[in-house]
Amino acid sequence: MKIYKILLFFSICASLVIANENNSAIVRMNALETNLLESDSVKIDFNITATGAIEANAKGTLQLLSGNRIQFSANGGFAGDTLKLVLFSDGSELQISNGKSNNSAQTPPYLNQGLIIGLTRMGLLHNIAVMQFGRQPDKTDGTVQQWVTVKNVQNAEKNDNAITFDVFVDNVLSAETELIIDAKTGLPLLRFQTVHFESGDMKVKEEYTIHK
User: Fold this and answer.
1) At what angle do helices 125-132 and 2-12 cross, to 10 degrees?
2) Radius of gyration of the chain (CA)
3) Is-contact 86 97, C-beta < 8 A?
4) Buried/exposed code over 137-163 (b: 16+ C-beta within 10 A; e: otherwise)
């Protein structure tokens, strides 16, 4: 039951299509997503903490290469359990290990897209939670941009390098986010997110160092 509720929550926390609002915050969000999606090589070092309804911490690296080639690792803790994740794709075969089981499958056709949009809109913790329970990253079939939407995208009032937005899943509000963007590269640096579910809120902080 505990696993089911956690997975249900993260499924609800996963739906953003950027609203067609004509403002500079929308332009910045679209630009950073396009930048990452069109890159042949991206390496992202991350450090994540979550408190409240779900307690979690994770440090690791996500490296994405063209052709759905990926190397991913994360270590820490999630909901009271040890977190030890490894994901590898050579573009043909996908391998996932959560420290308890090892699974392999054909690489999904939009693996890189699913992970990149998942990061920019939801944060990495969502797919970390999914993989912790032995599943492949969500919406790697090409539907992630319709599945996950953001609305009310605005420039932050007190930080010129930040934007704020609401996270929706199937038009249901699930989280509020502040995303701090590197002024030089236009890429994400830091995320603060409040996620809502029935047992209370979860506060998430994700730090990124992105190499291209």
Assistant:
1) 150
2) 16
3) yes
4) bbbbeeebbebbbbeebeeeeeeeebb
